[in-house]
């Protein structure tokens, strides 16, 4: 990510970019998830609540441990796919189409990471809404009652939310960084990366809230099967709760993703710069040893 708008002319080393992306993405994902998990739990409970239901304020860290088991590889996989894909696409597209490269790379990274993200999200949200006490119990009982497919409940709605989310968030972030660097005529500092990340996250979080409500309802329904799919879920919510229900949890979601974007992109860029410096030092030492 930090390479866009500057440093893209370095030789393309797929393995190095992949490894650095995996390490940076995994680190950033775990830091964000741990710091902001209670806000996510409140958001999920607000979205799951029917009219007149009381929100439970206890156990705001329910499911964190099990969730981190999924978040670490999912974040690592996402950035590990995103970085080399972005670099390749930026080489292929003219400079004025860099936004298309960022949008596409974000969607491709999200698609790959969804294979880990969805089961993690299903288990997390079932625990956040009090259906299970531990992650292993949740996995075992979901598979026993609903089959392996139960771990991928709401997969379509997840992709409907997350592919546009990843594409839009990373595109806004990358384009803002390019513009800011052109104005500043220098590399950005850590607080600047964090601020741009917060802005990109908050905007994207607000735009995609209705899709997030649909995903939450489909993922937590379990065997009740109130909704047969995305369209059925949308129609039922609209009929029973009105259009306002599609914005349930928007405040904690925007807060959570805005702060999360700040931490994620700040940690991501810092980790990447540390890894890049380490690689440069190793390259210099290797040259000296020749």
From TrEMBL:
<dbReference type="GO" id="GO:0031969">
    <property type="term" value="C:chloroplast membrane"/>
</dbReference>
<feature type="transmembrane region" description="Helical">
    <location>
        <begin position="60"/>
        <end position="79"/>
    </location>
</feature>
<dbReference type="Pfam" id="PF00153">
    <property type="entry name" value="Mito_carr"/>
</dbReference>
<keyword id="KW-0472">Membrane</keyword>
<dbReference type="InterPro" id="IPR002067">
    <property type="entry name" value="MCP"/>
</dbReference>
<keyword id="KW-0949">S-adenosyl-L-methionine</keyword>
<keyword id="KW-0813">Transport</keyword>
<keyword id="KW-0809">Transit peptide</keyword>
<keyword id="KW-0150">Chloroplast</keyword>
<dbReference type="GO" id="GO:0005743">
    <property type="term" value="C:mitochondrial inner membrane"/>
</dbReference>
<protein>
    <recommendedName>
        <fullName>S-adenosylmethionine transporter</fullName>
    </recommendedName>
</protein>
<feature type="repeat" description="Solcar">
    <location>
        <begin position="15"/>
        <end position="88"/>
    </location>
</feature>
<feature type="transmembrane region" description="Helical">
    <location>
        <begin position="14"/>
        <end position="39"/>
    </location>
</feature>
<keyword id="KW-0677">Repeat</keyword>
<feature type="transmembrane region" description="Helical">
    <location>
        <begin position="99"/>
        <end position="118"/>
    </location>
</feature>
<dbReference type="GO" id="GO:0000095">
    <property type="term" value="F:S-adenosyl-L-methionine transmembrane transporter activity"/>
</dbReference>
<feature type="repeat" description="Solcar">
    <location>
        <begin position="97"/>
        <end position="179"/>
    </location>
</feature>
<comment type="similarity">
    <text>Belongs to the mitochondrial carrier (TC 2.A.29) family.</text>
</comment>
<keyword id="KW-1133">Transmembrane helix</keyword>
<keyword id="KW-0934">Plastid</keyword>
<keyword id="KW-0812">Transmembrane</keyword>
<dbReference type="InterPro" id="IPR023395">
    <property type="entry name" value="MCP_dom_sf"/>
</dbReference>
<feature type="repeat" description="Solcar">
    <location>
        <begin position="192"/>
        <end position="274"/>
    </location>
</feature>
<dbReference type="InterPro" id="IPR018108">
    <property type="entry name" value="MCP_transmembrane"/>
</dbReference>
